[in-house]
Design goal:
Oligomer: single chain
CATH architecture: 3-Layer(aba) Sandwich
Distance between the termini: 24 Å
Helix content: 25-40%
Largest sheet: 5 strands, parallel
Length: 149
């Protein structure tokens, strides 16, 4: 599975980051993975600010895998800002989190999340879930580029 667009993984837990990257590898997902470890870093990447100033914004992520419980700016606020900007409002955003809170699920969908997936605790189930994510978002889904990109 591969496309030329990167995956933006927004994850502050180093163990979950390592497991996700391992699951990508096991599922032969070859896309570049850009890791943002907090909400500010994710927004900087998406909008070409801060450490990512000057980044080619025409290379948008194929999918954003977004944790909710993040330092500095939480995942719901990242999602809110992604959906509020014409340059990013059509990007697929998959919430990938441990939260089972109904309020989190409701608010994520209310803000425009494309999917909400609770991270499986079992590694084999996690590998399977990431494989399904890759198959759908990187192979089957037809992305749209916002006008002007």
């Amino acid at each position: 599975m591969a496309s030329e667009r990167p995956i933006l993984l927004v994850e502050d837990n180093p163990d979950d980051e390592a497991l996700t990257l391992r699951a990508f590898h096991k599922n032969r997902i070859a896309n570049e993975v850009v890791v943002a470890r907090d909400g500010v870093e994710a927004l900087d990447y998406l909008f070409g600010t801060g450490a990512y100033a000057g980044r080619d914004l025409s290379v948008a992520p194929a999918v954003i895998l977004l944790d909710l419980k993040l330092p500095r700016v939480d995942g719901l606020e990242v999602l809110r800002r992604v959906r509020a900007d014409a340059r990013t409002n059509l990007l697929p955003v998959v919430i990938l989190t441990t939260s089972r809170e109904q309020q989190d699920i409701y608010e994520a969908y209310q803000l425009g999340a494309n999917s909400y997936i609770r991270k499986p605790v079992d590694f084999e189930k996690f590998i399977y879930a990431v494989g399904q994510l890759g198959l759908y978002w990187l192979v089957l889904n037809e992305p749209v580029d916002p006008p002007g990109l």
